[in-house]
Please model this.
Amino acid sequence: MAQTAARPRRGGGIRRGEARAGVLFVAPAVLLTVVFLVLPIALALWVSLSDWNGFQSPLNPRVNFVGLENYAAVTTDEGLAQQNFGTAVRNNLYYVLFVVPLQTIIALLLAVQVNRAMLRGRGFFRTAFYFPSVTSTVAIVIVFQFLFTASGAINAVIGFFGGEGPNWLNDSTGIFHGLLSTVGVTEPSAALAADGPLGVSWWQWLAGPSVAMSSLIMLSIFTTSGTFMLLFLAGLQNIGAEIDEATRMDGAGPVRKFFSVTLPMLRPTLFTVLTLGLIGSWQVFDQIYVLGGGTAGGTINTPAFLSYRTSFVDLAWGQGAAIAFILFVFIILLTLLQRWILRERTPRAFRRRDPQPTAAADAQRATEGGVR
Amino acid sequence: MLIGSSGDAETQAVQAAADAWGEETGNTVEVIAASDLVQQLGQGFSGNNPPDIFYMPWDQFQSYAAQGFLEPYASELSNAGDFLPALVEQFTYEDEFYCAPKDFSTLGLQINTEAWEAAGLTDADVPTDWDQLATVAQTLTTDEQVGLSFGREYARLGVFMNQAGGALVDGDTATADAAENVEGVEYVQSLIEAGSLKFPQDLEAGWGGEAFGLGKAAMVIEGPWINGAMENDFPERQFISTELPAGPGGPSTYAFSNCWGMPVGSETKDATIDLIEFLTSDEQQLAFADAFGVIPSTESGSAAYAEQFPENAAFVAGVDYAASPVAFQGAAPVFADFNTQLEQVGSADAATLLDALQGNLQSALDAANG
Model:
């Protein structure tokens, strides 16, 4: 009721002109968004549908509309462009599969640890864990390059324990292939050797991240966990002390409390972290760029880097833009999928999975509104 | 002016030349050393703000010319007739001579004289054929150093294919899977297997010259640019450059050149042409040669160079039988892919490796010929 009363009415009265003022106030923001976001995206969409070669404006009259040709070149037309795209998608897929769950779990664990009231020097740990996120990725990649060279610190440690480390950033062996070769499987079966999607054989799809990509996965987890730890920390501090108390009264141990109370209450944060992680890891670019993208037999190439390379180096701007848009659609679809998986379950469904509703679950339901 | 510099020596020399010309003519030239030449060029052209004059790399020239980015000014130069015919051909697209070759480099074999003597080798052992190369590379390989190193890329490995008598392209047909090419790759593989050849990546060096300077490789295959690099980064390194050993198909090396590119419809065309005439004069090219070791692109200049720098005579001698690396429009991604495939060159089957190249090369050729 109060809301209806507050709604500005058109026409006279004390609120006359408010709408116009509102438009005026948002105009700069809208203008900036249109000029720097909407127009470039529209232009890129046009480029992806045209044969623009990178000379002068994409809107000059010599540029022709070619329909979905650029999209077909990387998806359905057999050839190098398709293979490169397929390999890049494969690489990135493994990157996401490893990075997103690991960084989320590590960030959550770190957050729970630095949130404990009993921990001494909490400030120090929070800063220490967050520090890699503040440093530029490029700087960290260069440090990692030194760590991971054949005679670098990592291999020195492995050597100390009597092992022999690989030439990390140049090793293109997929880790699944590597594991298989330890049990003597080095050749694909006929079915796996056949061409799979995007011109890449099934055997190659199943190769796993290469050793070089694995180092990048470690690097990425190292840099992003701190950021997400901070998000989880904020989420954890939203859980009031009274809930802690209630769970303790109900006799729940720390593990039970974590899984039955803390984790469900962190679901909104979890959603944010997973979404940001998913988007970020599909767009991974700077690490690859610093390493040159061509090392390790093309196993660290990603669609984002391929898009850049196709445009700026090979001057196939339309194809580069097409890759970018495919990536865009892909990210949207995956985010929707993830949203659907993490959707709010009805209390009934919730109870069915957990036949004995505990006080903790009740407490969770009671405070749900407040948290969100 | 946008240049892709090989190092400080080159940047300073070009800056000095540009300043000298500017003083003479009253123009100002800002020399920018690109961190990534090809990317910055692409950016300049798409933003409709290309540099007035720039280094045009040999492997991108055909693409740029085919896309209509370049002004075909070269025949208007007063010294247009002085350039080496092979270079004129390299920078000609559809019968039009586009841009003036900046300078010229061939590949040679660099030998670390200290390691050479330590291994008990003499002048008589300087390899002139594949067998001798394999032998000395083996002799020079110790725990600390590998006998031979060169970049893991088409622009080095291709030389071995040519030395075996092969070629990648014959007119409109790709011939990458020819038996001679397989022989070339297999020879390189035999060196890898013997442990006497390692690529710079495996020696923790960015390129062959670095591996050489660090003393991790006793011999490398690089061009005259290695002189400038050694002087700057490893002044202690004593070495000689010799011609590449010949293969069963005869001697072969690659000739690389950049040219002075000018964007199509340049507003400063007249001044730029004047500057390019200045930069490609024998006198100026010999100054560049002195500063960073490249060979002048003109007939008279390269002759004078051979006399003036006897230690680089091997590079000039290579001019006689040098081939230009394959670089037609659309070839760059094919060779980028081939270079990544070469990471497995140690373990891969040579014929399989070249089969893949053959397929990609043929479709790129078909695309280029419309």
Summary: Confidence is low (pLDDT under 50) at residues 349-355, 365-372 of chain A.
